[in-house]
Specification:
Elements lengths: L1 H35 L10 H34 L6 H8 L1 H22 L6 H29 L1 H7 L12 H29 L10 H41 L14 H30 L1 H9 L5 E15 L1 H7 L2 H21 L3 E6 L2 E6 L8 H15 L7 E18 L2 E7 L1 H13 L6 E4 H6 L2 H4 L2 E8 L6 E7 H10 L3
Helix pairs in contact: 1-2, 1-5, 1-8, 2-4, 4-5, 5-7, 5-8, 7-8, 8-9, 9-10, 12-13
Length: about 500
């Protein structure tokens, strides 16, 4: 509630100033001109009129305060509590500046009518003088009152427009500037012109009447009211623009969760709504990009966005790593599906981390198996070494999965790497004998103590720093192949195999 009290105090103080400016203009025209103008006009400069003017001003302020309590205070309460406004409350807030301005105009006209009624017995020119004073003073007061309402309650208006910004329009920046100039500057200057012309034509002001003081005070009033009104309008433009500028800086730094409050229904409000819509679109595209990266891998996603949307690929020298779990079917038969999913997630998390560490690509997940590629779509200076190092890293990391076992196969050779499918649905994959060879090596590796087998061709193509961790382990004909494949195992795994075989 403290926020509501502070806003109401600011609003009330602004209204006092606005009423004071209007009363000052009225006092100037009636008292200063009435004192030295036509003989009938001197009757306006009385203690009764001064008291009446003061009382009417105080009553107007009291009524304006009651209207504030009725129309403004409820909005301040839900705003300070952080509640979401209803549709009725939202409409009331958006109409508040106009409604309050109409209240002030009505009060000012009523006070002017009462003041005129109290002076009907005098010269008819007195009525014109009072009417002129009411128009000039009321115009300045109404304009400043509107700007005060809009500026003070801007946070409340922004909160009301956050969830469902309305589509109707309000006064634009140009209209506000013109109206502010008319009411706060043009009208006082027009009053100065009217005084000079009236003195020349001898309507109300006599030719020998000194008008220096009225003109000076009107000029000062025009300067002060014009400056204040211009500052209020300028702030209503500059503050939202600065806010949008700061938010744009956050977006440039990579944040897509920023938004700005919508302060009004003018071009500024539409700018703020447009910025929020733009950032929401960017956030959605980033979310889709992230999902795309997660589904196909960062490198494949980047390749897809850089290429034309067409099928195709090329022949690459790559290393292929295939890994498959052992015992996952039995595990699924004796455990709930949620535990099976958790196990697979743990398994794939370890695999993805190891492959990413060595600049590889997870080409696909297939049940409880995974296929990784090194050297495509992004070139790798040592694809064979990266695949072999990944296999050794996985061997150590996967020992933490106690419920299942695994096998890893590594191969190297020429493959077709590119997009396979139809024009409207395709995927990036690799096709070639090394893929089949890696899968067959995985089957054999499940029966080996080290759980890893590689084609010796991959070891020969690897960098020496990685090749020295591997040892040749004979040759065999893999299922589905005619030629023999020379096998290799990590040195520590080869030693374990030798001990088991009695070598």
């Amino acid at each position: 509630m403290r926020t509501a009290v502070v806003l109401r105090m600011r609003y009330s103080a602004g209204l006092v100033v606005a009423y004071g400016v209007g009363a000052a203009e009225l006092f100037l025209i009636v008292v200063l001109l009435g004192r030295s103008s036509a003989p009938g006009a001197q009757s306006l400069v009385t203690l009764r009129n001064a008291v009446t003017l003061t009382v009417l001003l105080l009553i107007s302020l009291a009524i304006a305060n009651l209207c504030t309590t009725k129309f403004v205070w409820p909005a301040l309460r839900w705003y300070s509590r952080g509640e979401e406004p209803t549709d009725v409350q939202r409409r009331e807030v958006l109409d508040m500046a106009t409604r309050q301005t109409l209240v002030h105009v009505g009060l000012w006209v009523a006070c002017g009518a009462i003041f005129i009624a109290m002076n009907l017995g005098g010269d008819g020119r007195n009525i014109a003088l009072i009417a002129l004073a009411v128009v000039f003073g009321g115009a300045a007061m109404s304009c400043l009152g509107y700007l005060v309402t809009e500026a003070t309650l801007r946070p409340v208006i922004a909160a009301a427009m956050t969830t469902t910004p309305p589509q109707r329009r309000a006064l634009g920046v140009t209209q506000r500037l013109v109206i502010t100039w008319l009411l706060c500057t043009a009208i006082p200057v027009t009053a100065i012109v009217a005084i000079i012309v009236d003195r020349y034509l001898h309507w109300v002001v006599r030719a020998d009447t000194p008008i220096n003081a009225p003109i000076l005070i009107l000029a000062v009033t025009a300067i002060i009211a014009g400056l204040w009104g211009t500052v209020l309008v300028a702030r209503s433009v500059s503050e939202p623009v600065r806010q949008v500028g700061r938010a744009m800086g956050e977006v440039e730094r990579g944040r897509t969760d920023v938004s700005v409050g919508v302060h009004d229904l003018s071009e500024i409000g539409r700018l703020q709504m447009g910025f929020n819509s733009m950032v929401a679109g960017i956030a959605e595209r980033e979310r889709l990009r992230d999902l795309f990266n997660r589904h196909v891998g960062h490198h494949v996603a980047s390749r897809a966005m850089e290429r034309d949307e067409s099928l195709g690929g090329d022949v690459r020298q790559v290393a292929v790593l295939f890994i498959d779990l052992t015992g996952s079917t039995a595990f699924a038969d004796t455990h709930p599906p949620t535990e099976v999913a958790a196990l697979l997630n743990d398994f794939f998390r370890i695999v993805v981390t190891a492959v990413d560490n060595h600049q590889g690509l997870i080409n696909k997940f297939n049940g409880d198996a995974a296929l990784a590629i090194f050297g495509a779509p992004v070139a790798n200076p040592d694809p064979a070494g990266a695949a072999l190092a990944t296999a050794r890293e996985l061997r150590s990391a996967l020992r933490s999965l106690e419920s299942v076992d695994f096998g890893i196969g590594v191969s190297y050779g020429s493959v077709f790497a590119g997009d396979i499918g139809a024009e409207h649905r395709y995927e990036y994959t690799v096709i070639g004998d090394p893929v089949n060879e890696a899968a067959r090596l995985t089957e054999l590796a499940k029966a080996r103590p080290g759980r890893i087998l590689a084609a010796h061709q991959a070891v020969m193509m690897a960098d020496r720093s990685e090749a020295e961790h591997w040892k040749r382990r004979g040759r065999t004909i893999l299922r589905g192949r005619r030629s023999r494949t020379v096998l290799a195992e990590p040195v520590e795994a080869a030693a374990s195999s030798a001990r088991l075989l009695g070598r």
